[in-house]
Structures are given as structure tokens and as C-alpha cells.
From TrEMBL, chain A:
It comes from the Bacteria. InterPro entries: 2Fe-2S_ferredoxin-like_sf, 2Fe-2S_ferredoxin-type, 2Fe2S_fd_BS, 4Fe4S_Fe-S-bd, 4Fe4S_Fe_S_CS, Beta-grasp_dom_sf, Helical_ferredxn, SDH/FRD_Iron-Sulfur. GO terms for biological process: respiratory electron transport chain; tricarboxylic acid cycle. This is Fumarate reductase iron-sulfur subunit. Pfam families: Fer2_3 (PF13085), Fer4_8 (PF13183). It is found in: Cell inner membrane. Binds 1 [3Fe-4S] cluster. Its cofactor is [3Fe-4S] cluster; [2Fe-2S] cluster; [4Fe-4S] cluster. It is an enzyme of class 1 (oxidoreductase). Gene3D superfamilies: 3.10.20.30, Alpha-helical ferredoxin. One of its GO terms (cellular component) is plasma membrane. It comes from Motilimonas pumila. Residues 9-97 form the 2Fe-2S ferredoxin-type domain. PROSITE patterns: 2FE2S_FER_1, 2FE2S_FER_2, 4FE4S_FER_1, 4FE4S_FER_2.
Automatic annotation (TrEMBL), chain B:
Part of an enzyme complex containing four subunits: a flavoprotein (FrdA), an iron-sulfur protein (FrdB), and two hydrophobic anchor proteins (FrdC and FrdD). InterPro entries: Fumarate_red_D, SQR/QFR_C/D. It comes from the Bacteria. It comes from Motilimonas pumila. This is Fumarate reductase subunit D. The chain crosses the membrane at residues 16-43, 63-83, 104-124.
Length: 245, 125
């Protein structure tokens, strides 16, 4: 029996030889169980070793293989050829990020934003190890747990039309990470982080399109984190009117 | 690639406009269908007596303090909602020039019409 084939277009860009990104088509044998990431590995091993892409865990926990699959931000390891067969698949680097090489993007801005929100517990007062652990009830943990599931893949930034228009916007993943810490009962850094939330580039850069939550491969709901913060920020605004600091 | 995050972030005044937008959106979502049903369907089809919307009856309602308050809120808030949406919509469709002027015109219009409606209601008493 003849092999069934599937076409995959990859947006190629090698800065040392290409003036502009361009599509290159590869034809590979179709396999029902092959993920897009495995298809890329097949291409690199069997057809063209010059294709560059990021990957590590193959099981949607490292967040490395984010890319645009037929124009939608996806993890390469979490979508399969069968989801698209018999149609052609087009792979492009994540939207809204500069291309470094082929499917590899420059994530510096994203990483800086994650760092900028102070992504660590700021305790009210330091405890020594002898004083024992910080106790937390399941109810207190449920308040922030979903926002701690982010794997920093960047799909939400590729999905966000506001980040596309204005790179100053703090963005979905960083704001959900901020929510993860501000909602944690062990944390006392809320007021410090609210300054980031209250800014134009904070939650007010969002117009609640909600695509970030739709593309998240880990079920985090950044849009909810941001809208809840808008209420917090509005309260904070009112309080500051009567009690300036 | 470092951005303004390193300087102290500046507080946005958006909560005021977002508050009016939210309140107006709530009213629009819940009450506009009712208004359309009454004025556009029930009365024209004769399912509700046209007397219900007679000049005298509405005038009596509009000249009580609570009636005037209800009308003012029903007209002003959805207007703030609409203009907030238009202002942000301009950014979304790529019209980035003159954001300050866009803001003044959008919210200025909502403010002017609010004042106009307020005055109109007052002088009916």
C-alpha cells in the first residue's frame, strides 16, 4: 500500500542568508499518532537538518514548542497531524514575537515582564526555618492554584491583540502570575504589585477579548485574572482618592 | 528591549471610565431589550395600550424626582458605555493618532449630552 503523505509548510528565516521569512513545503508520511512536534523532528532528522525549532519535554509541561499552527497559537506537542489531515499544515513562529530563526522566537520581552511583577512570595516578616512552615488551608490554596499552572509558553501573548498593538502592555501570562502571588495567603507584597496592576500598561491595557484564555494549553484563565484585577484596581483608585500615599 | 517597567508605573485614570462603561453596559444589556419590546413591539402591535406611553403619563413620571433620576441614568450611562467602546475600538482598528483628542471628543460628547439631559429634566419641573 502506498504511503499516505501530508504537506507541511514551515516559515523559514535564517538571518544570515534570508532577506525575509518565506514558506518552505515538506512532504512527510502521515501517521495518525504523530504530533506536530514529532513531524518537525521527522523533517529535521530525515529531510532537512537546517530547520530550527525549540522543544524539550514532548508532553506540554516545558512550554518550549509554542508556534502558530494554521494561524493559531498551539504547543507543537499537543496537536496532532490527524487534527488537520488531509489538509496542509502551516507552521509559523509565535505571532507578536520577533523571529530569531525559523520557528524560534526572541522571548526576552516576555521574560522581562514575568520578572517585573516580582514573581516570588514576599512574606510580611521573614521566618527562620526553626519557626516551621507557612501553613495554608486547601481553601486558601484554591484561591490562586489555577493561576500557578502557567508554563510560560507565550501562547497567550501570541493570541493577545492588545500586546500586538502595544508591546508596553504587561500582558496575560505576567498578570496571571501576578494574580497567583497576590491571591496567595502567605504573600504580603500585594500593595507593591498593585502599582503594576493600576498602570495603563497593567490591567487597563486589556479590552477583554479573552483569546488568551482560549489558547492556554494549561487551562489557566488569564482573562479572568485581569478582569478581577480591574475591580481591585477600581477599588484601589477610589481608596487612593481619599487616602493618597 | 527594556521597557517602562523599570520606572515606577503611573496610575491610570481608567477606573472612572471603566466604571461608567461597566454600569452602562449592565443597563444596556438588561434594559434595552425591554425598551425595544415595549416601544417597538408591544405598543405598535396594540398588545399594550398606547395610553401607557401618553405624553401626560410620561411627563408626570419625568417630573417626579425618582422618575427624572431613572431617565437620567438610563440615558447617560449607556452613552458613556458606547463612547468608551468607540474610543477603545478606534485603537483596535489601528487609528493611533491623536489619542488625546479622541479621548476628549469621546468622553466630552458623553459628558455634554449627560449635562444636556440633566438640564432638560431639571427644567421640566
Amino acid at each position: 500500500m502506498a504511503e499516505t503523505l501530508i504537506d507541511i509548510d514551515i516559515l523559514r528565516y535564517r538571518p544570515e542568508e534570508d532577506d525575509a521569512p518565506h514558506l518552505q513545503t515538506y512532504q512527510i508520511p502521515f501517521d495518525d499518532e504523530m504530533s506536530i512536534l514529532e513531524a518537525l523532528q521527522y523533517i529535521k532528522d530525515e529531510l532537512d537538518s537546517t530547520v530550527s525549532f525549540r522543544w524539550s519535554c514532548r508532553m506540554a509541561i516545558c512550554g518550549s514548542c509554542g508556534m502558530m499552527v494554521n494561524g493559531e497559537p498551539k504547543l507543537g506537542c499537543k496537536v496532532f497531524l490527524r487534527d488537520y489531515f488531509p489538509n496542509k499544515i502551516t507552521l509559523e513562529p509565535l505571532a507578536n514575537f520577533p523571529i530569531e530563526r525559523d520557528l524560534v522566537v526572541v522571548m526576552d520581552d516576555f521574560i522581562e515582564k514575568l520578572e517585573s511583577i516580582k514573581p516570588y512570595i514576599i512574606p510580611a516578616q521573614e521566618k527562620s526555618i526553626d519557626d516551621g512552615e507557612y501553613i495554608q488551608t486547601p481553601e486558601q490554596m484554591a484561591k490562586y492554584k489555577q493561576f500557578s499552572m502557567c508554563i510560560n509558553c507565550g501562547l497567550c501573548y501570541a493570541a493577545c491583540p492588545q500586546y500586538a498593538l502595544n508591546k508596553e502592555f504587561t500582558g496575560p501570562a505576567a498578570l496571571s502570575l501576578l494574580a497567583r502571588y497576590n491571591r496567595d495567603s502567605r504573600d504580603a507584597g500585594g500593595a507593591e504589585r498593585m502599582k503594576i496592576v493600576n498602570a495603563e500598561e497593567g490591567v487597563w491595557g486589556c479590552t477583554f477579548v479573552g483569546y488568551c484564555s482560549k489558547v492556554c494549553p494549561k487551562g489557566v484563565d488569564p482573562a479572568a485574572a485581569i478582569q478581577l484585577f480591574k475591580v481591585e484596581s477600581a477599588k484601589d483608585y477610589l481608596i487612593a482618592m481619599f487616602k493618597p500615599d | 528591549m527594556s521597557h517602562s517597567q523599570h520606572t515606577e508605573p503611573k496610575r491610570s485614570h481608567e477606573p472612572i471610565f471603566w466604571g461608567l462603561f461597566g454600569a452602562g453596559g449592565m443597563l444596556t444589556a438588561f434594559l434595552t431589550p425591554v425598551m425595544v419590546l415595549v416601544t417597538g413591539i408591544l405598543v405598535p402591535l396594540g398588545l399594550m395600550s398606547p395610553e401607557a406611553l401618553s405624553y401626560e403619563r410620561i411627563h408626570d413620571f419625568a417630573t417626579t424626582w425618582y422618575g427624572a433620576a431613572v431617565l437620567f441614568v438610563l440615558i447617560a450611562l449607556p452613552l458613556w458605555h458606547t463612547l468608551h467602546r468607540i474610543y477603545h475600538g478606534l485603537h483596535d482598528i489601528g487609528i493611533h493618532r491623536g489619542r488625546d483628542i479622541q479621548q476628549v471628543v469621546s468622553y466630552g460628547f458623553a459628558f455634554a449630552v449627560s449635562v444636556f439631559v440633566f438640564t432638560l429634566l431639571l427644567q421640566m419641573f
